[in-house]
Every structure is written in structure tokens, then in C-alpha cells.
Amino acid sequence: MAKRKYYLSKSTFLKGLQCEKALYFHKHHYNLKDKITEAQQAIFDQGNSVGELAHQLFPGGVNCQPEVFYEYNKALASTRQALDHGRPVIYEAAFFFNGVFVYADILVEDEEGWKVYEVKSSTSVKEVNIQDAALQSYVIEQNGIELKDVCIVHLDNTYERDGEVQVDELFTKTSVLSEVNTLLPRIPKEIERLKTVIDRETLPEKSIGAHCSSPYKCDFMGQCWGHIPEENVFNIGNLRTKKKFELYDQGIILIKYIPDKFELSDKQRMQVEGVKNNTSYTDSIRLNQFLDELQGPLYFLDFETMGSGVPLFDHTRPHQQIPFQYSLHVQDADQIKHFEFLAETDGTDPRISFIKQLISDCGSEGDILVYNISFEQSKTEDLIQAYPDYKVPLERIIRRLKDLMEPFQKGWYYTPEMKGSYSIKQVLPALVPELSYKQLNINEGGTASATFAAMANGTFEGDYDQTRKDLLEYCKMDTYAMVEILRVLRDRVKEYY
Fold this sequence. Notes:
- By secondary structure, the protein is α/β, with parallel strands linked by helices.
- The protein is built from 19 helices and 13 strands.
- The chain has three domains: 10-198, Alpha-Beta Complex (Lambda Exonuclease, Chain A), CATH 3.90.320; 210-276, no CATH class; 285-494, Nucleotidyltransferase, domain 5.
């Protein structure tokens, strides 16, 4: 295998620390990478926009990143030129040493000396950020630049927008110099180890484990997890990851082979026995009580929300979820009506229009069923905080909320087809197999959120009219699913009374 010049970047270094096999796949079989979802791409794009905004913390700098990200030689030449010309602020400064190439988000020289700032779109500093900063610091200092400080720049989750974004209030600078200095002695050895991995002729042997999703979900899960069948031990609800892999490492992959003596909660044991015996479970007393207490007319409500690292509207915080859409089915006797709201994508704050129509559509009496009450309740409470003039009608809505997830979450009804989950995406096909999200163009909440956000900020490339229809169809499915799930639960209870 021919020796290469560029072995590692910050991202591939971290990938290698997480899993040598993932690093090898990335370098030699990149085409096998799992498909990136729209929601994942939105996270990447948001990180880029946050990084660009952070440049305003140190204005007047020169940007050394070339138009094509991987033109490393151009980036290195631009950085060397900026340093030679005494530029005190450099964005995307590029450095190379011993096969490792790094971009530094912001490099600043002040009266104390050189300092490097690594920008993150999160609201706290994580261990993986310090590992990232340690590699970066090592490469920079090997280029003859002594760093007086190393900082992680992250979003302040207490910042609330009021007018124009105040960049110095939006971001927090946290020094990690001490932590980086602790890690630095290990960096050269890790670099050499990972270079050896890349130079291998064959794929490293590495079993699946907790590292597959920590600190990041691996890009090659499809390659390493393809042998895992359905009804596997990883589907056991609320079982700690450590215990799942304890079973796996003993060669127990299928739920039906879990020993009776293996420690499980009552609900987990119910799931296991359901698989072993192909039986469902109904707590008819509690389920019947839940259904009897529902007061009509019944409303079935679902919100869709979007978040942004940089707050888009006044009185919002970083990553705060802003409601932009809802679907509402109303069942009165045998009649079902449907109402819906989808905000315009003209850049205006959607919340006032959302509130007004929600209050109108929800009427004044009857229970409002949601799936996972904490979500809709907390978002409605956020609306009250932002718009106290609507406190009274919104609090009335909150008092009427009932959680359709409760019978599944508490184990009052379980069937093996739910695969240990009480998510509506699992419950619906288990109870109503003729209904499915799969045929929808938009079929999960992360994609809906990312799609609307792209439409709102002008980065969407596609058919606006058709995509708005797709968003409406997806949200409508969520509430119609609830209508059908309730029907099935009532049918099940009738078998006992």
C-alpha cells in the first residue's frame, strides 16, 4: 500500500479514537457509509453557520479556507501568508504535521500571545471537544506557534434574543488549556497508532459495542450491524446498553434465548415472554379505566417544531424548539373532522398565528389526546411565557391534555410487534398494520423539522408547494394514527367486558 501524505484530520482522528474499524472503513471503503438523513445534514449545516457567526467575536480576520474544502495545500499557503504578514486574527487557519491536517476555527494573537478558539454549536463542553482541541493544539505547536490559551466557544443556553443577535452574549468562551495539556503527551502515540490502522491491508477486527453510538453514532452501522436479526436483545425496552451487550457477548442475540434467570423489570419480562410465546398482554382493568375517563368530543393533537442554534426570533433561546405546525383530528360521536396549521416560510415568527388558530380549533370542551404529553405541554408552556396575553386560553388547553402513550408506556397493553418500544412509529404498525409512514415523502419528525427550517431560511432546494403538502400529510398521519390506535384499544377492551 502506497504511503500517503494526509492521514488524519480532526474528524478522522476522533473517528479512530471511537473505533479503528470505522476509521478504516472511512479511508478505504467510504462508499459503504450509511446514507445521511436530512435531519443529520441540517445539524451539519447549522454547525457551519454557527461557526461563521462566531467570527464576529474577533472581527477583521482573514479567512484561509479555500473554496474547495479539501484543497489543503492552498489552505496551508494562505495561512502561512497570513502569519508572515502579521495578521492577528485568522479564520480557518490550516496546519499540517506528521500526516495530520487541521483547520483551527479562529486563531488570535493578542498582547498575551496566540490563542485558539474552537467553535461548537452545542451549549456545553464535551470530552470529545477536548480531544479535538488537543490534537489541534499539538499540530499548531509543532508548527512553532506557542499557544497561551485553548478555548471552546459554545452557545449560551440562557441567552434570549431581543432584537438583533448579540454575538458576544450568544457565545460563551470556555478555556480548556489545562485539560488539553493533560492529553497532549498521549497525542503523538495515538497518531502513530491510527496511521498504522490506516496502512493495514485488511479491515481491523472489532465487535459491535457501546462505542458504536458514543460519542457519535457511527457512519457505518449498516456494515457492522447487518447480521443482527429482528426480535433481538437490543430491542428490549429501557434495558441499559451495558446489559444488552452483556447478553450479546454471551452469544445471546435473539430475545427468545434470554435465560429466565436474567434480571429484567416486569415490563421487560413481559416483552420477553411475549416474544417467546407470541402472546400479547392487556391490563384490562387499567386500560378500561383510562378509556372510560376520556371525555368527548375527543381532540387528537400533534405539534411539529424546529430549533436553531442561533435564535431566529425574539424571546427564543439557542436550540429552543419553536412550534410551526400542528394537526388536529376531532371526533364527536361518529363524526371526524380535521384541522391543520402550517406556518408560512417568509421568515416571520410563526407563534402568534399558531396560537390564535390553535385556540380556535381546540374549542372549549373535551379531552385533547396527544402522544407523549410532556412535549406538547412544555411547548405550550413556552408559548405562554413568550406571549402571556394568551395565558388563560392556553392554560385551558393544557388542563385538557391526556396522554395516549400512557397505556403503552405503563405496560397496560403490549404486543410483540411493538418490539419493546412505545413510540408511535412502532405502536401504529403493531396495532394498525394497514397504516404506514413508509409511503410518505416525509415520514419522521427530524426530517419535517429540517425541511421546514430550510424552507424558512432560504436554503431549501425543491418544490415548495409539493413539500408543504408533504409536511401536512406527515403531521396529519400522526393524529390519524392516534384516532386508529384509540379505536384498537377500545376493541381490545371489549374482549374483556
